[in-house]
Amino acid sequence: MPAVAGRPCSVAGALEIIGDRWSLLIVREVIFGNHRFGEIARNTGAPRDRLAARLKALVAAGILEQREYQASPPRSDYHLTRAGRELGSVLQVLREWGDRWAVESPPVSVRHHDHELRVGSVCAVCGERVRAADIARSMRVDGWDMAGPTG
Amino acid sequence: MPAVAGRPCSVAGALEIIGDRWSLLIVREVIFGNHRFGEIARNTGAPRDRLAARLKALVAAGILEQREYQASPPRSDYHLTRAGRELGSVLQVLREWGDRWAVESPPVSVRHHDHELRVGSVCAVCGERVRAADIARSMRVDGWDMAGPTG
DNA sequence: CCCGTCAGTTTGATATGCAAACCTTGACGG
DNA sequence: CCGTCAAGGTTTGCATATCAAACTGACGGG
After folding, report:
1. What does the angle CA B65 – CA B33 – CA B46 come to, to the nearest 5 degrees?
2. Which residues contact residue A100 at a Cβ distance below 8 angstroms, ignoring those fewer than 6 apart?
3. How does pLDDT run along chain A (151 residues), one tens digit per residue?
4. What's the CA–C1' distance between A47 and C18, in Å?
5. Cβ of residue B60 closer than 8 Å to a chain A Cβ
6. First-to-last CA distance in chain A?
7. What does the alpha-carbon distance between residue B95 and residue A15 come to, in Å, rounded to a whole number?
8. Residue spans of alpha helices (H) in chain A
9. Which of B32, B112, B118 sits opposite A146 (nearest CB)?
10. Does A65 contact B at CB distance below 8 Å?
């Protein structure tokens, strides 16, 4: 019996960690250079108790690390680990989708050299642009195929 | 006063639409070719009432469209719109992150031509690989900069 | 007639989310 | 001293959301 219901899948696994209402916004703020509890609370709009709980969970999940920047009274801020930094590409893609479909005009400008950044997906192996037609999926775990559980 | 608290941002806007526990798993299943209520319920593990509510919301948000495949008794299935299809790249990136950080070994294999797909980000404008150091951000809305509200 | 399928809806207990107030340590001002 | 303020949370009390499981209603087959 699997630990969780539903198809075993890395997307589900990822969402288990960062798929709540505030995690990605927290990571966004840390990427933006806002490392302190108060800054993150203000800029995300998250309730303080939720934020405290999520920060704790993200530290436990290895996405953030907590650094004490003064000892007395104890004050700490939050920095990205490698796993956290790699969420940057998730945020980029999500931002582009949001720019197109969720807002009227992009509220945040992202410059790349001297032009606006627009991310595109390529296959890192062959360098080709990724198109749905060139992709084939299959399940690697017993008891599942693409249609669902086989048992 | 803004409609929602927190920084105005496309990521927040996107999460407003697909940032709940089930939406991306629903889209995943539809991409996988599972279009019916029962299939999606079984393969995501979502409770049926939540699923019904999310499907309704995703249709309203223009991510899915509902098609009646028989009239009596009325039965419909769900298909992706353009906006929904474009969530594919979000899922790809999220899957890669999950493969690296959320699971022990990738449960789903994605083949591109004759090799395993690994997505990489490039700038669609200049073609260069995207690196954090080449990126500069700024807010386009009054009252906010990268540090937070200026008011 | 009875059973099964499908797409939801209803129900009732439980968990989660929220805003706001509160706590603690210390710095600063008078 | 005394009051006030800042930071980083924690506590409280209430409202809402979520869940599993049972139910509905329209069919179709045997």
Report:
1. 75
2. B83, B86
3. 456 789 999 999 999 999 999 999 999 999 999 999 999 999 999 999 999 999 999 999 999 999 999 998 999 999 999 999 999 999 999 999 999 999 999 999 999 999 999 999 999 999 999 999 999 999 999 999 999 999 7
4. 7
5. no
6. 12
7. 10
8. 10-18, 23-31, 37-44, 48-60, 82-85, 88-101
9. B32
10. no
Using alpha carbons, list the distances in angstroms from residue A10 to A64, A117, A121, B10. 20, 27, 19, 24
Distances (CA, A) of B6 to A101, A102, A104: 19, 16, 17
Which residues of chain B are within 8 Å of residue A137 when distances are taken between CB atoms?
A: 32, 108-111
Percent helix / strand / coil, chain B, rounded to 5: 40, 25, 35
**Amino acid letter at A138?**
S
Q: What would the two tokens of residue B73 be? A: 């008794």
Cβ(B64)–Cβ(B84) below 8 Å: yes
Q: Quote the pTM value.
A: 0.96
